[in-house]
Amino acid sequence: MLSLMTTLGGLGSHLGGWRHPRAWTGTAMNLDQQIELARIAERGLFDLLFLADGNAVRQMDKPALFEAVSFSDRPTGFEPVTLMAALAQHTSRIGLLATATTTYEQPWTLARKFASLDHLSGGRACWNIVTSSYPGDSRNFGREDHVPRGERYARASEFVEVCKGLWDSWAPDAFPEDKDSGRYLRADRVRTLDHHGVHFDVAGPLNVARMPQGYPVLFHAGQSEPGRELAARHADCVFSVSGDIKVGRDFATDMRQRAVRHGRAASDIRIYPGATAYVAQSMAEADELFEELQSLISPSVGVPYLSKLVEEDLSGYPVDGPLPDLSGEVSGLSSFRTTIAAMAERDGLTIRETYERVLPTMGHVLFKGTATDVADQMQEWHDSGAADGFLLSAPALPFGLESIVDLLVPELQRRGLYRTAYTGSTLRENLGLPIPRNPHFDLALSGTEQS
Ligand SMILES: Cc1cc2nc3c(=O)[nH]c(=O)nc-3n(C[C@H](O)[C@H](O)[C@H](O)COP(=O)(O)O)c2cc1C
Asked: How far apart are CA 301 and CA 91, in angstroms?
């Protein structure tokens, strides 16, 4: 079965999406509209709503980009866990994927927030573990420079271990609240952590009871060597940045092999390529929307935006010449840099041709056409092992998401590729993931947990 998730936020995934006459305005900070998007996605039986995040207003040093506003720049928006807690009260089944950074947060506060979100949502919390891709975030945390990648991932690894330790603080039956005997809690069903590591010293226990899912579902998007290793050890699901199906399959195979090397099953890790879907009643209609949105991108932002995505200033190179060598390491978004460079080299693209191809999807896959056309492409990715699901973004909102739900979802269901109803109440149940067992308390007493 394919799993679908979509992006909240409100700008649409196309750089010109927010300018479309039928696109909503003000969505980034409008709770009613976020609720409406969540309800559309839940009507489409999506597994997850996703909100990306950073800790800075980006591109202030690049005026053209700052004014152009893409969804990946999110100059203002809701803090993700806060928004998801609000959406939990207006939805009942869809999972809530909030981004939070291990580079600038503390494990104690974050473990608490996600445990609370899981309780508030009846077991639908999901954490996008990031190490902060935007270098400028550091300046809001007292650092002039971005923390180097190796250090970020070392901290991330210890951070996740500490969170898991805190989430294991309480047995599920720790609170009998027996009015007759006067026993509120069982002191033998809680455990301190006493973690003393390189980056953190955390005593524990957590002051939130064992959450319905045991741990939130863990997502990760890192594509570098340490990023993949972190995902292989801890993540239930990973984003893939794969310009084409072969790259996607290679990434998926690599991640599944890494999971096995960490003592997990290959199927324990789910792969979600990012894609933008233009779904319409006819190919001509889909093309028309695509061209209309393309015309809303100012030509002056093409080179700066591509420069941003590949983390290299391309302004000094001829726009109708090839990209320079991009094999050098960068501290931020290495995944887009590598994928875009490989695509440009493979197809012999100039800088102009590269940005024309990349900007409509911001480096992700493009699916365009009727529901049948788009379902064919998605099925090919799924059947080839490149995708267990998709981060399926709509180019403009809300109508792009409505087309996905009203046209594409029935076609996927007709093919038996997609659920016709939610089968569980927690996100883990809907994804077919087990509830992690709490290693400190015996299973006989802890009821619902599985090994
Ligand atoms: C679909 C997707 C969503 C992402 N969301 C965020 C985000 O919300 N915040 C963030 O700091 N980084 C985000 N990233 C960046 C990744 O966390 C990661 O830093 C990036 O892919 C580079 O990989 P590396 O960290 O292994 O070099 C995202 C990446 C992808 C592909």
From this structure: 38
